[in-house]
Write a structure and sequence with these properties.
Largest sheet of chain A: 7 strands, parallel
Helix content of chain B: under 10%
Oligomer: heterodimer
CATH class of chain B: Mainly Beta
Strand order of the largest sheet of chain B: 4-3-1-2-5-8
Strand content of chain A: 15-25%
Number of domains of chain A: 2
CATH architecture of chain B: Roll
Number of helices of chain B: 0
Order of helices and strands of chain B: EEEEEEEEE
Number of strands of chain A: 14
Helix content of chain A: 25-40%
Shape of chain A: globular
Radius of gyration of chain B: 14 Å
CATH topology of chain B: Archaeosine Trna-guanine Transglycosylase, Chain: A, domain 4
Number of strands of chain B: 9
Largest interface: A-B, 30 and 36 residues
Chain lengths: ~400, ~110
């Protein structure tokens, strides 16, 4: 694996971004149309927000960490004026992080058209400030945090798509970088295997607890992550399906378990627990779609997301570019404009797993250096956030040293 | 359906005793094994669909069915090289329900809504 270096953006907290995007944040669904219209046609402006009028700690934490994400250079917060979530508070947190931020309430600005015009004016100012403030510095593998998730999986995902990401994760960890994987509910049956990969006794306790909670969750909502179509497609047991998903974690030691919106305290391989905690409304639902899972990964500070698909997928991501990997050569051909990497060549024998992983790492470095990924180039910047109950990450958690 | 010599199955790990068919194999088809431990050929003893597993070695009743280098289940009867390995001869070590599923559709036998 060769050393790679590219120019990044140094933030005041010491983290480095690979993009200098602006973010428009709406604080209730009622403000979302205005927020989307403000961003329409604007280069490098992404939109995130929370639909609920009543706020939610999990959602607020997630929006705050996205608004101060290494890839973000400035933020505009747009509220309606009567919701619980306060755009002023978000803007202040962004300013404290050393980034320019503005905010306003639509009710105080005379309605839709005036608010859009005002917002576009703010974006012009924010863009100038973000460009002026940009500190370009060299970046390398050790500065990268990458997240991985799979969706639209098929029989190739466990054989090629997830293993090539796992091998790339091994390289990234060996080079001093940070790799994050999630979807504990798709690791059912692998408790001993997961704990066997723990980097420390504390990590072992965390992995066991995350696993046990996922099993309780699956039992409570009466849904294990295996369906008739999986069996008909050739998967025989939950262990077999889980192993296919777990393959994207590679083979290195797992440092510990992160909770949503928690940044890894040090480099290495980490498991992200995005399963809700049990509380007075029971568990509620875990991530209802791929996009919320991606947002949870971005909220760890990941600058790039790897998305592994078999059947195909046409989503991208706000804040962090998505690189799409498929293990299915037919899907790659059918959806070439959406697919960044064809791991199906491993199955046809054209290329070894190791060769493919080196090629994938090179693509990651290219995208980190500014090359647009396929979803990014198509203008994809999906965002999804819903109510979820998860206790705040504890500063005394065993993964912090 | 694969022609006899072009059919292949992917073995993930060198210790695996099953491989995944990359195309449909007819009974008697010669299946070449690709992947980390490539090179061997196994004769399919029955028709096996794409994405399903073919046994690469004999697996005794009660022995582990090995894929990804780990036990993904336990053989419920003796499995011969070339056999189709699925719900009829392999069960989960955790999920007792998997042995009560229809072999071809994966739908629970006797399910009210099926």
């Amino acid at each position: 694996m060769r050393e790679r270096s590219w120019a990044g953006y140094l933030r005041k907290d010491g983290r480095k971004g690979i993009r200098n995007h602006l973010l428009v944040v709406y604080t209730v669904e009622c403000a979302s149309f205005v927020a989307q219209e403000i961003a329409r046609g604007e280069e490098n402006v992404h939109v995130i927000g929370f639909p609920g009028c009543y706020d939610n700690d999990y959602a607020i934490r997630l929006m705050l960490v996205l608004a101060t994400h290494p890839n973000i250079g400035g933020v505009l917060c747009v509220g309606l004026g009567c919701e619980y979530t306060q755009p002023r508070v978000i803007a202040e947190a962004v300013r404290e992080s050393g980034r320019p931020a503005e905010w306003f309430f639509i009710q105080e600005r005379g309605g839709t058209r005036n608010s859009i015009e005002l917002g576009k004016g703010h974006l012009r100012t924010l863009r100038t400030q973000a460009d002026d403030d940009a500190v370009r510095v060299p970046m390398g593998w050790a500065d990268l945090t990458i997240g991985a998730e799979c969706g639209g999986s098929d029989g190739t995902s466990g054989l090629a798509g997830n293993p090539v990401v796992g091998r790339a994760y091994d390289h990234l960890v060996d080079l001093g970088g940070t790799a994050i994987f999630e979807e504990v509910v798709e690791m059912i049956g692998l408790r001993d295997l997961m704990i066997g990969r723990a980097a420390s006794s504390e990590a072992a306790v965390q992995l066991g607890a995350a696993y046990d909670k996922a099993v309780s969750y699956c039992k409570a909502v009466q849904q294990f992550s295996i369906a008739p179509g999986n069996f008909a497609g050739g998967l025989t047991t939950i262990e077999e399906k889980s192993m296919g998903a777990f393959a994207k974690s590679g083979s290195r030691a797992i440092e510990g378990v992160l909770r949503v919106s928690e940044a890894p305290p040090r480099a290495g391989l980490w498991l992200l627990d995005s399963v809700p905690d049990s509380h007075f409304m029971q568990f509620g639902y875990t991530n209802p779609n791929d996009t919320e899972g991606i947002m949870d990964l971005v909220a760890t500070g990941a600058q790039i997301i790897l998305f592994i698909t078999g059947r195909g997928s046409v989503i991208g991501s706000a804040v962090a570019p998505l690189i799409k990997v498929t293990g299915n050569s037919r899907t790659y051909k059918n959806m070439t404009e959406d697919m960044d990497f064809n791991a199906g060549r491993i199955l046809s024998g054209e290329i070894s797993l190791e060769e493919a992983s080196v090629e994938l790492m090179d693509l990651i470095a290219d995208v980190a250096g500014g090359q647009t990924s396929k979803p990014e180039g198509l203008g994809h910047r999906e965002f999804f956030l819903m109510y979820k109950h998860q206790d705040a990450p504890s500063l005394s958690a065993g993964c912090r040293q | 359906m694969c022609a006899e010599i072009t059919c292949s199955a992917f073995q993930v790990h060198t210790s695996d005793n099953v491989a995944t068919l990359l195309g449909e194999a007819g009974g008697g088809a010669l299946v070449s094994v690709v992947g980390p431990a490539a090179g061997s050929v196994v004769e399919a003893r029955e028709k096996i669909q794409m994405g399903h597993k073919i046994a690469l070695a004999e697996i005794a009743e009660g022995a582990a069915v090995q894929k990804f280098g780990v036990a993904i289940g336990v053989a419920t009867s003796r499995i011969a090289p070339g056999d189709w390995v699925h719900l009829h001869n392999c069960r989960s070590q955790l999920d007792e329900g998997s042995s009560a599923l229809d072999l071809h559709t994966g739908v629970r036998k006797g399910a009210q809504h099926a």
